[in-house]
Prior knowledge:
9% strand, 65% helix, 2 domains
Amino acid sequence: MSGFSATRVLAVMIKEFKQLTRDRLTYAMMLALPVLQLLLFGYAINSEPRHLPTALLVQEDTVFARSITSALRNSAYFDLVAQARTPAELDDMIRRGEVQFAVTIPGDFTRRVVRGDQAQMLVEVDATDPSATGAAVAALAALPTQALGADLKGALARPTAEPLFEVVVHRRYNPEAITAYNIVPGLLGVILSMTLVMMTALSVTREAERGTMESLLATPVEPIEVMVGKLAPYVAVGLIQTAIILVLARVLFDVPMQGGWLGLSLGVALFIVGSLALGFLMSTVAKTQLQAMQMSVFYILPSILLSGFMFPFRGMPAWAQALGEVVPVTHFLRVVRGALLKGQGLEDMWRELLALVAFVCVVTALAMARYRRTLD
């Protein structure tokens, strides 16, 4: 047996580099994944969200009410995006997820402040994600001393250091700030994405590698028939997974289930079909099971980071939120959390369901186009 040869080592190295250049998809994934992780973790992730959308209901037009409005507007944590006219309108905004905070200044606020008669201001918080609102709620503690300090002078000056009014915080949908109420329903979207997309992509690619796909292509089966036939068993798998997760969420973690079952059922069905169609689309692009696995990971990673599952969605910069709106998991998580925690109906979640319909239609059309080219 000959000794170590640097020439032979160099030959093997050259062979491996040539192999990488031929497998361009794998090479691109190796370079793109670290860059994607660096950008997302470095720029998009923020554990202390600011500029949270806030709605305001002012039941008196006074100097004190305007001072509080200005203080909220100047805060880094609140963005006043809507002015409600009635308590019902304010309730609809926070229930639909349009705003994170709903502030009510009552009609007797000024009179009670002047008299020192325990004035109160109500702040309702969408607390489905406790980590998204913790810092903003803490900032409210300074509001009584900062907002009206310039207004209470002269005869209105208060001799004591007591707060001028009380900020009553009402944490809705998750008053005890239990993290599991937010994470466990979100796991439904992540688990379905990881299993269904990856299983479908690997299953179809495996048939192509083993040569059994050639026999299927030789039959008079239409592309849509192939797709429906191959994906139908996985639909049943996805439904079983959904049932198991929901039962365990209730039994083990006591996740509240407020209703909204029709919207939730539609959302689950659309998301399962869309995820399977996406896996089928990946299988038409991937040439090997390794490539199919890499493409699945490339889809799942931003789905976890940009959807609001692990980090507050509104804590991300505008460009990251725009990318997150393209991710179907984002809309599915809103459907699941809205149904289970808020009891939302179809009239509240129709935008998210429409986004899932668009996801299914686009991915299915692309999969069919790719499959026809494969047939050719």
